[in-house]
Amino acid sequence: MRRRSGFTTAPKAKQVAPAMTLVEKTAMMSSVPAKVIKAA
Length: 40
What we know:
Elements: H1 6-39
Protein backbone atom coordinates (compact mmCIF):
# COMPACT_ATOMS: atom_id res chain seq x y z
CA MET A 1 0.00 0.00 0.00
CA ARG A 2 2.77 2.43 0.91
CA ARG A 3 4.57 3.48 -2.26
CA ARG A 4 6.47 6.55 -3.45
CA SER A 5 3.14 8.05 -4.49
CA GLY A 6 1.85 7.29 -0.99
CA PHE A 7 3.95 10.08 0.49
CA THR A 8 2.09 12.66 -1.58
CA THR A 9 -1.32 11.19 -0.77
CA ALA A 10 -0.52 10.66 2.92
CA PRO A 11 -1.20 14.29 3.99
CA LYS A 12 -4.55 14.25 2.22
CA ALA A 13 -5.42 10.89 3.75
CA LYS A 14 -4.50 12.16 7.22
CA GLN A 15 -6.83 15.13 6.76
CA VAL A 16 -9.71 12.98 5.52
CA ALA A 17 -9.09 10.07 7.91
CA PRO A 18 -10.11 11.85 11.16
CA ALA A 19 -13.45 12.88 9.69
CA MET A 20 -14.07 9.40 8.30
CA THR A 21 -13.11 7.71 11.58
CA LEU A 22 -15.43 10.00 13.55
CA VAL A 23 -18.30 9.19 11.21
CA GLU A 24 -17.49 5.49 11.34
CA LYS A 25 -17.26 5.53 15.14
CA THR A 26 -20.63 7.25 15.49
CA ALA A 27 -22.14 4.86 12.95
CA MET A 28 -20.69 1.80 14.69
CA MET A 29 -21.67 3.00 18.17
CA SER A 30 -25.23 3.65 16.99
CA SER A 31 -25.53 0.45 14.93
CA VAL A 32 -23.91 -1.98 17.38
CA PRO A 33 -26.44 -1.41 20.22
CA ALA A 34 -29.25 -1.83 17.69
CA LYS A 35 -27.79 -5.16 16.59
CA VAL A 36 -27.38 -6.25 20.20
CA ILE A 37 -30.99 -5.36 20.98
CA LYS A 38 -32.20 -7.25 17.91
CA ALA A 39 -30.01 -10.23 18.77
CA ALA A 40 -31.22 -10.23 22.38
